[in-house]
Specification:
This protein is of the alpha+beta class. The protein has two helices and five strands. 26% of the residues lie in helices and 26% in strands. It has one domain (3-76). A hairpin with a 4-residue loop joins β4 (29-34) and β5 (39-41).
């Protein structure tokens, strides 16, 4: 991973874990990456579905907290 997506750092409710969305520019892949060194792929189809649920008049200004909330939800999975 050679980039971190700005604004995606999130913490678990406990405050003991953190994560963010990282990417590989060459492979054009995104992942959820956690402070313990683990990661899992970001499902692009799920991202598109979340975007599709956004009201049409909000599309020019997408929800800046969407990926951060998604990272927080991924932290709670374990």
């Amino acid at each position: 991973m050679d980039l971190a997506i700005e604004g995606t750092v999130a913490f678990a409710r406990s405050g003991r874990r953190a994560g963010c969305v990282t990417g590989d520019r060459l492979r054009r892949k995104l992942r959820f990456t956690f402070d313990d060194g683990t990661s899992r792929p970001l499902d692009f189809e799920e991202l598109v579905a979340a975007t599709a649920r956004t009201a049409r008049d909000e599309l020019p200004t997408p929800d800046p907290g969407l990926l951060r909330r998604w990272v927080a939800a991924e932290l709670e999975r374990d």
